């Protein structure tokens, strides 16, 4: 797996009830301003990417493009998921740090 820390933190977020997944739920929570980070799979459609990137920028919510639909889904115990919203500020920061570590080769 690409970055075990990132994926295990997603799993922890899910168990803690601090995560919403799927286009509909993430869209709804973004509109309610209850999302602190959006994770988009690298293999989401161009339309999905554009929609959420625009929404995040408009709402000043950070987003990252990370992992695949399959690996994200596996981390949270679902079939396939391309969009995840983190509803806890602390967990959002930890996930951003974990993603940065992976991208810059840090441990």
TrEMBL record:
Stretches assigned to the Ribosomal protein eL8/eL30/eS12/Gadd45 domain: 7-95
Native species: Thermoanaerobacter pseudethanolicus (strain ATCC 33223 / 39E) (Clostridium thermohydrosulfuricum)
Keywords: Ribonucleoprotein, Ribosomal protein
Name assigned to this protein: Ribosomal protein L7Ae/L30e/S12e/Gadd45
Cellular component, GO annotation: ribosome
């Amino acid at each position: 797996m690409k970055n075990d820390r990132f994926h295990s933190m997603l799993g922890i977020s899910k168990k803690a009830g601090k995560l919403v997944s799927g286009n509909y739920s993430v869209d709804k929570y973004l509109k309610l301003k209850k999302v602190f980070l959006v994770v988009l799979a690298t293999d989401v459609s161009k339309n999905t990417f554009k929609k959420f990137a625009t929404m995040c920028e408009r709402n000043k919510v950070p987003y990252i493009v990370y992992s695949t639909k399959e690996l994200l889904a596996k981390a949270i115990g679902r079939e396939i998921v391309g969009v995840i919203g983190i509803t806890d500020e602390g967990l959002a920061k930890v996930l951003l740090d974990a993603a940065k570590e992976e991208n810059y080769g840090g441990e």
